[in-house]
Every structure is written in C-alpha cells, then in structure tokens.
Design goal:
It contains eight helices and no strands. By secondary structure, the protein is mostly helical. It binds fe (ii) ion (2 copies).
Length: 186
C-alpha cells in the first residue's frame, strides 16, 4: 500500500458517501415525474456513482483496498434532522450536504503532501460537485411560489444546524485520523 491507514480510511469514507448519494438520488430519479428536476436528478445520481468509481480507482492506483464502512455522513444527517418530508426538503438537505462536500474536498485538496492520484481525483470530482450545488440552488428558487421563500430558508437553516452537529460528532469520533490528516475545521 502506497498510503497510510488514515488516508486509506478517509478515501474509503468518501467512496462510501458517494455510493450513498448515488443510491439516494437514483431512487429519487426513478420516482420523480417528468420535469427538469427529474433530468437534473438523473445526471446528479450518475455523477455520484462515477465519483464512487473514481475513489475506488484512486485507491487501487495507491495499492489500497477500500475499507468496508457501515455508516455514511448522509445516514447520520437523517438520524439527526429527521427524514425530509417533501421534494423541497430533500433538495434543501442536499444543498447543505453538497456544501459540506465542497468544503471538505477543498480542505483536503489544500493539505500538504497529498499524493497526485488523490489531487487529480479531487479535481475531477469538484467540477461536478460545483454543478450539483448550482442546479439545486436554482431548483429551490423555482419552488419558492409553491413552498414559500421563508419556509425554504427555515428548512435550510434546520438542515444547516443538523450538518454542524453531525460534522462535530464526526470530528470527535475520528479525531485521531482527522488530526493526522490535518482535516479539522469547525
Ligand atoms: Fe460526489
Ligand atoms: Fe455531489
């Protein structure tokens, strides 16, 4: 293995989260009625599935196997914030989550001594993640007449609070690895 256990763990964690995202959005894409949201959601789930593939490939290039991890960031979100009740809430929780992904990937890209394989993978994925944030933001704006601007703002706040809580818990739970990788930011 060309990397240490901590990097193997976090890349495996990213891979698991990307798989959870792909499965979650894939199920949604299957159940939505024809619309621009259905179109974007389909592209979105395909992107997340590709990201899982890129991390799997990246680990293979580094001669490391993906660790089997039982939980993902998304599972903890749902446990903290509750299941989203409608499509607007699903998009709101997704926007908050995608924001967190971008912060985390940016933070990781900026750490010193990162293997080029990881750097390249982060770069490719970040382009897609940027688009995820954009289409969801636009979709939420288009929902304002139906759900109300204030209601959407409050929903985003509720999920942002849940995100902070889950992020803090994740840091505490994995403090040694995260400190070793210099990835802590509160
Ligand atoms: Fe992704
Ligand atoms: Fe994403």
């Amino acid at each position: 293995m060309k990397i240490d256990e901590n990097l193997q763990w976090i890349l495996s964690y990213y891979r698991s989260c990307e798989i959870s995202g792909a499965l979650f959005f894939g199920q949604l894409a299957r159940s939505l009625k024809p619309s621009s949201i259905q179109c974007d959601m389909t592209r979105h789930f395909a992107d997340e599935a590709q990201h899982a593939r890129y991390w799997t490939n990246c680990l293979a290039e580094l001669e490391a196997e993906p660790l089997k991890l039982c939980t993902s960031y998304q599972d903890q979100y749902i446990a903290t914030a509750g299941l989203p009740a409608n499509l607007m809430e699903i998009l709101a929780i997704t926007q908050v989550f995608e924001n967190r992904v971008i912060i985390q990937y940016n933070l990781h890209a900026a750490t010193a001594g990162l293997p080029p394989e990881v750097q390249d993978t982060l770069k490719v994925i970040m382009t897609d993640e940027q688009w995820h944030l954009e289409w969801i933001r636009d979709a939420l704006i288009s929902m304002e007449p139906e759900y109300g601007k204030d209601n959407i703002r409050q929903t985003l706040k509720r999920f942002t609070d849940a995100d902070r809580e889950v992020y803090q818990k994740t840091i505490v739970e994995h403090v040694e690895r995260i400190n070793h990788l210099e990835l802590a930011r509160r």
